[in-house]
Amino acid sequence: DNVPLEMHKTRIVQKIYLQPIERRLQAIREAGYNTFLLKNKDLFLDMLTDSGVNAMSDKQQAAMLEADDSYAGSETFTKLEEKIKEIFGKEYFLPAHQGRACENIISQTYVKPGMIVPMNYHFTTSKAHVVLNGGSVEEIFTDEALKITSEQPFKGNMDIDKLRDLIKTNGADKIAFIRLEAGTNLIGGQPHSLENMREIRKVCDEYGLLLVYDASLLADNLYFIKTREEQCKDMSIREITRELADLADIIYFSARKLGCARGGGICTNSRDAYLKMRELVTLYEGFLTYGGMSVREIEAIAVGLEETMDINMINQGPQFIEYMVKELVERGIPVVTPAGGLGCHIDAMGFLDHVPQTEYPAGALAAAFYIVSGIRGMERGTLSEQRDEAGNEILSHMELLRLAMPRRVYSLSHVKYAVDRLTWLYENRHLIGGLKFVEEPSVLRFFFGRLETT
Ligand code: F0G
């Protein structure tokens, strides 16, 4: 019956509370209808993100006790460096405090005013850093990528013809680098295929361009390559990882998706790239053997990377999400298909077809869902965009309510509860109206902007 089976058991638990609906209503008002501003004590399930909130393994916890605490030359750092070398085959590793710090370093190094960064899709922070350095982002997704319902197993693929056209039209010297994102976050955690990355590599070789790989959501993408890409079904996760890594010039990642509270890094085989970026690590992050992380976190990352090579570990998120998506589809609730990684993505424009996009349907749905369930999701739509220079609203391609599935944290009954509450809300969707800003920050406004009902 496709019920996911947990290949782990729980040995430490945390008590959670379900506040009465009156309190939840008050809490969302206090939070300016922005789920980022809710307090944990008011949450039942926290499905805001899969970042920094995944369960850690006993082995990660044990490794943290062994951490070698020294400013420079720490043995712990060497362990991680060795693990990166073993798994990704990259000689040089630069630590950073998290994913966006890597994006800062890479963008400052390679993006000059007027340059373009083609991507399969942007991520909020990755785009912000390119723009901050005077560059622009061009998204070259396939036609299938933005369809809510689809049978295409790799909606995160780049359209190779569009990529070539873009390079020909603008000239290769205008391209800072090509960025490929694993488990394409903002279109529903959708993977790219190994085959697609091979084709991108060919284009890079033809035009002498750098391929930068955002591996933050690599675990999910690996699972999908293994289970959906015919020619990879007999490859081990380790072999797939190595092939992906060999195709990239620079790999960076957020370690917050590995059960860690912080952390990230950049690896490469190019001494030139390493030397260019190295100075920025010591300027913004810390010394080269910690880069803004604690040694405990560095130990946990090394173990987390190793555990990512285990199919019984990386299948947990995607299988829970697949189960949830299947249940929602059966109830006629509009949801992104095929099921991706990271979380379950509800199509807010389909759910709330009476709320115009300028009134942030995904934000409104996130607030309403919290009120009826105590579950916190995240708006991934127009609210998460930034206005253009003239102050015009940029309407996003999709309006999604993301219900993230922190890995190995929630049980199947939690998922069933979420499905039950969504079903009630869908039947009563006419109760939900739009939102408008009362306080609107100019950068990454979704994090701390405040709204009210229209
Ligand atoms: N790249 C991708 C694909 C991400 O999903 C994230 C973070 C980052 C980069 C930035 O990493 O948070 O460590 O600075 N995604 C989180 C999320 C925040 O909830 O989607 P970070």
TrEMBL record:
The modification N6-(pyridoxal phosphate)lysine is found at K257. Belongs to the beta-eliminating lyase family. SUPFAM superfamilies: PLP-dependent transferases. GO terms for biological process: aromatic amino acid metabolic process. The keyword Lyase applies. GO terms for molecular function: carbon-carbon lyase activity. Its cofactor is pyridoxal 5'-phosphate. The keyword Lyase applies. This is Tryptophanase. Residues 46-418 form the Aromatic amino acid beta-eliminating lyase/threonine aldolase domain. Keywords: Lyase, Pyridoxal phosphate.
